[in-house]
Amino acid sequence: MTGHAVDESTIFETPLLELELGLESDASVYAKAEWFNLYEAPHGGGSIKSRIAKGMLDGAEERGDLEPGVTVIEPTSGNTGSEVARLATARGYDVEIVMPDNAAGGKVEAVRDAGAEIHFVDADLGYDAVIERCEEIVAADPDAYYRPNQYENPDNPGTHERTTAREIHAATDGGVTHFVAGAGTGGTITGTGRGLTDLSDGAVEIVGFEPEEPLHAIDGLKYLRTGDHYHPETYDESVLDRKLYVTTDDAYERARALRERYADEPVPIADAGQYDLETIREHLRVDGQFVVGTSAGAGAAAVAALDAAGDLADDDAVVFMLCDRGDKYADIPLWEEYL
To answer: H or E stretch including 88?
Structure first.
């Protein structure tokens, strides 16, 4: 199988935006627009998972774990699957993706567009069932498959430690005081948290957040608060200084508030990363609207919760992640009335 050509040079060095969240404090709030990874890819550009897809595939090839003729397989709620599919098929591998049957339409179409085979799992069985189905497929013919395994692969947090952390530190001139990220695999908060802790000698507060409810609709995040749920090895909670819990309603409300806030005003660009301003403006919006994904709204809600608790000072600089763009979610309640 050979997928579409992919320009991997567009991965990393994403733009940093400065956003107004209506906080009580005068803290500066910045957000990394992660769909600029593979920004020209169809169905919403890339995502924060473009980083780890490249990191895991690079690592596997360098170690000899992934060789020609082997099929790449990965369980996913959508973004990791689409990014693994895009990169791996472009490198000449067959790809199979296991995902819940309620995954956002834009993510499903991105996987299909890459030419990967999809195994759907009944979403009512829970996300752990997606992982279990993938394990069953691999167990039936172990030599035929390579599974990057975003939930256990150290190249997941390792990629964020090497890239995301350094980008944030450089783009804020070392001024970042708080880093806020959600936990799905935990790779972003673990790796970026480690990197920023090292770069700042422990001065950055690392704040993780998880869904409040087990039946939530914040794509990409795992409910781990109670019960017997699979806990990713890539999620090292010792890196966190604090953990927050976010509801789906708050996540959606905050995402929509960003759309309204920048309906008639340009979104300030604090650092362009590797891109020129014209490219950023062209790919920042969808149909003229500033729409972000569900986990981005959750990140904004977590920042607002920190502020409401009185934990942000006027001279603080907070960074969170806009993991993907909203057009991946045109068929779910977040944006179905808008796109």
So the answer is: helix 79-90
Q: Choose the catalytic residue: 49, 107, 222, 328.
A: 49
Contact indicator for 174, 200 with CB cutoff of 8 Å: yes
107 is catalytic: no
Amino acid present at 66: L
Q: What is the pLDDT of residues 159-177, one digit of tens each?
A: 999 999 999 999 999 999 9
Q: From 146, 179, 156, 125, select the one nearest 233 (Cα to Cα).
A: 156
The span from the CA of 98 to the CA of 132, in Å, is 10
How many whole angstroms separate alpha carbon 116 and alpha carbon 203? 43
Contact 339, 287 (CB under 8 A): yes
Domains and CATH numbers, the chain: 8-48+153-328 (3.40.50.1100), 49-146 (3.40.50.1100)
Residues of the chain with pLDDT > 90, as a percent, come to 95
| Single-letter residue type at 289 | Q
- 20 to 3, 27, 28, 30, 104: CA distances (angstroms): 40, 10, 8, 9, 27
Strands (E) across 57-94 are located at 71-75
Q: In this structure, are residues 18 and 265 in contact, taking their beta carbons and an 8 Å threshold?
A: no
- Give 272-316 pLDDT, tens digit per residue: 999 999 999 999 999 999 999 999 999 999 999 999 999 999 999
The DSSP string of 145-171 is: EE---TTT-THHHHHIIIIIHHHHHHH
